[in-house]
Amino acid sequence: MDIDRASLTFIRWLGLAGSIMLAVAGWLGGAMPHADLEATPASVARGAYGPIIIGLWLVGTAAQAYAWWSGRDRITSTREAAATALLWIAPFLFVPPIGSRDVYSYTCQGEMFLQGLDPYRQGVSALPCTWLETVAPIWRDTVTPYGPLFILLAGAAVAIGGSLVGTIVVFRLITLAAILAVAACLPALARRCGIPPQRALWVALAGPIVGAHLLAAPHNDAVMISLLVAGLFLVVRAQTRPALLLAAGALLGLAVAVKATAVIVIPFAILAAARPLLRSAALVGGAALAALLAVTFASGLGFGWVPAMRGSTSIVQFTSPPTAVGMTLTYAGQLIHPGFDAVPAVRALALVALAAVLLMLVIRALRAADREKSALQGAALGLAAFVVLSPVFHAWYALWALTLLAATTLRTNAFMLISIAAAFLVLPDGGGLPRFVKFPGAPLMTVFLVVLLVRYVRRRRAEAHPQPATAA
Question: Distance between CA atoms of 262 and 401, rounded to whole angstroms?
């Protein structure tokens, strides 16, 4: 026991050391308002603090990732898991934005809303935004794909913050509140699925992406995730109380009003409710729709954000598996025809595959003896399928699935590894390999996917046709 306690103590301080190194790297080379927007990883490395920034970032990420991975089955209490996770993210409350410039876009979108402009019809350059020079050029003329609830939050953040720094502080406090909400609600989901709650909290909140990307950036994904977890928490606690199911549906509808991705969870929440299916659909689904419509009309913005989501597909990076395959086929096809482009077709096939996977998960939950547990697992796997098959992938997207997977299954290693790999691909200023190393990045990703597919097929065949000794 003393050895285990000493090991946990080492893990806790190693993770904190990693967080501090990442925070220092952020102060030296984060996504500053005045940063060079044309910088590349090579130019960062040649800068005055370049080697120090990259060294701290790599070593800090490795230290926190190792501590996270090592502690997932050693942590002994829910309180200890939550306290350690919060200790590791604490340094990121006091740093400039790290790993992304999205918060500057959020700020400008909030200012647009306060000035009476529709961010679903015009880019932030139309105002023009007071802080336009901080926004990446690719997003200055792009309409926002975020839902009306987030635009309302962005407007409130700008109004309360009063300045660029103040607004970023408000966004970070909103993100921190969302993380605390996840910490409060996730253990109940874990207990319902037979998962140790301390492990669920550790896997969901102690990873290297949570502090350095979700909080330090900060990203609105935290709000969506917290609303999803809170909604499912109420579904599990509802039992014979319809009012809780109405509240759960409302929270899920608000999650959709932040990011449309959340809609994947609603069918599984309906299945998880301990009611006849039609009644569950009326309570949970009806409340979700009512909340979405209410916040949409309250904002006065309408549904322009739905078609605006297509703008994100302009990003072509090998971190998305379907996009990587499409890019690889494109490189091969252009040897014959210069205009060949396979990316749209492969992305379309991936979305068809996603629909098939979601349908399969719904059917499995309907047939399960424990429908509630199977539906919760289906929600997690549905988000995982979306992350894998989506045309675009950013590092923090892994948390959409990993948060629910942590509470519904012990088989989290794959997404933990995805999170670790994604954390290494992005530098503190928001640049990284995906944007600048399309080749050979896409072919290497494609080869990796083929290897995984072959291994999966072989394993399934071995399970279907076991050897006599194995069967015995």
Answer: 11
- How does the average pLDDT of the chain come out, rounded? 92
Length of the chain: 472
DSSP 263: G
d(CA 401, CA 388): 10
432 strand-pairing partners: 426
- Which residues in 255-409 belong to E strands, given as ranges? none
Distance CA 405, CA 386 (A): 13
Helix or strand holding residue 210 (H, E)? none
* Interval 313-342: pLDDT, tens: 778 899 999 999 999 999 999 999 988 999
Main-chain phi, psi angles of 319, to 5 degrees: -70, -20
Cβ neighbors of 168 (< 8 A, separation 6 or more) are 97, 103, 107, 161, 218
pLDDT tens-digit readout, 136-185: 888 899 899 999 999 999 999 999 999 999 999 999 999 999 999 999 99
- Measured CA distances, 178 to 202, 205, 218, 232 (Å): 16, 11, 11, 15
3-class DSSP state of 465: coil
142: which DSSP letter?
A: P
221-247 pLDDT, tens digit per residue, is 999 999 999 999 999 998 778 999 999
Taking the C-alpha atoms of residue 73 and residue 416, their distance in angstroms, rounded to an integer, is: 13
pLDDT band for position 1 (cuts 50, 70, 90): very low
Q: In the predicted model, what is the mean pLDDT of residues 10-39? A: 93
> Residue 13: which residues within 8 A CB-CB, separation 6 or more?
none
What pLDDT, on a 0 to 100 scale, did the predictor assign at position 2?
58
Which residues in 243-275 are b (16+ Cβ under 10 Å) and which e?
ebbbbbbbbbbbbbbbbbbbebbbbbbbbbbeb
**In whole angstroms, what is the distance from residue 67 CA to residue 291 CA?**
40
Return d(Cα 4, Cα 294) in angstroms, integer: 52
| Cβ contacts of 409 within 8 Å, gap of 6 or more | 193, 195, 377, 380
- Please, are residues 380 and 408 in contact by the beta-carbon 8 Å criterion? yes
